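re: ur msg from earlier - yeah i can do the magnesium ion complex, just paste it... oh wait u already did. ok heres what im feeding in:
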Amino acid sequence: MSNPQHAAPGPELAADLEARGVRYALASFVDLHGVSKAKAVPLPHLGQMLQGSELFTGAALDGVPQEVSDDEVAAVPDPASLTVLPWKPDVAWFASNLHLNGQPFEACSRNILNRVRAEAAAMGYRFNLGIETEFFVLRRDSQGKPVPYSDRDTLDKPAYDVRTLLDNLPWLDELVSAMNQLGWGVYSFDHEDGPGQFETDFDYAEVLTMADRLTFFKLMAKEIAHRHGLIATFMPKPFGDRTGSGAHYNMSLADLESGENLFLTADRAPGAVSGLAHHFIAGVLRHAPAICAVIAPTVNSYKRLVAQGSMSGFTWAPVFICYGNNNRTNMLRIPSAGGRVECRAADISCNPYLGAAMILAAGLEGIREQLDPGDPNLVNAYTLSPEELAARGITTLPRTLSEAIDAFEADPLARTVFGDAMFASYVAYKREEWESYHCAVSDWEQARYLEFF
Ligand code: GLU
Ligand code: MG
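and the outut:
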């Protein structure tokens, strides 16, 4: 006889999904890069799948640290994350937590974020997050070169361009409609500052929901672009002379019980945040170099975090570890609406579970220790001289992945947040990534040195 309390959540959900035309379910989780991995299950097996029947060998993936000889990890789907694929409505996707032998697997990105969420909850906070999605959608020309979809997308300053936005509507409309069909509340989208670069902005949500959505968004944008013969890329800086793709994190803490935004000042003053938010900011600034290794996780990420390097005049990306007003040169800016803090260092290649876990843990430390972030930077940080930077105590973000990983390895918070196995795995993977890059000789080097020496 079945015990209703322990009954599988499957039968009712399966019936509901069947009525909606779903035939397969995906038990999905992410690797170190935040890329979705899954097994597909025919709907009659949904009940088992929700109990964690789908097993994976971590050794086959990046950043699921396991030996070939280890027991498999099981994906335990979170029913709350159910998402029917808008472009393929016979498939349902579930974000899952990895388990090993019945216990949460320490080195799973979603579990890592859940551990820090629990810390926030114990302090009475809920972390709300909105992530701005910048990305390029390109096609390959007859030579295989990646070029914009629209032939007219040739401006030096393409930001907010209407003609090329309209040219791209066939795939953009499909993507934005899909996001809204899922209830994400897209409130604007535009052509960004690079050729073939776009941004979609949608409602903030509790951090776990937002990390699931960003993960799903990347899968969905790629699939929809692919249906149009295009490539959606989340590479941070595809073109050296154009702006890169950020994933600005818009962050606030709310009271766990009432939902009240605790980053608002008492008088809800525009452009201002509360004392609590200042402590949070100070914690993030303290750990910024280590955080950078996670929110700007690739060799290419550091080609975005420069002031020069865009034909439009600016990259709009941060270079220094500072906070301040509604000023795009700050790593952490306080938008004029007030009540939230925007981290501009994050790029769209980041694993959102790991990125959010690091930032939240650092912010909570700032609150616990009542840290003071000092004076805000109210000027164009790109133009500050080394003397002015020193006088204001402003230091530079890591300039390369190698510097960022050194900082990550040296910061005890990184090990605490990631746990020993994931920490070691992350450092090893990223060091190898850097070494592999470092051993390659680029076109730039040949052009500069071949005939020079
Ligand atoms: N694309 C810029 C970046 O890499 C940001 C541009 C903007 O502020 O929207 O962060
Ligand atoms: Mg933008």
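cool cool. The pocket of glutamic acid (ligand 1) is lined by residues 134, 192-193, 243-244, 246, 304, 316-317, 328, 344 (CB under 6 Å). ping me if u need the other ligands too
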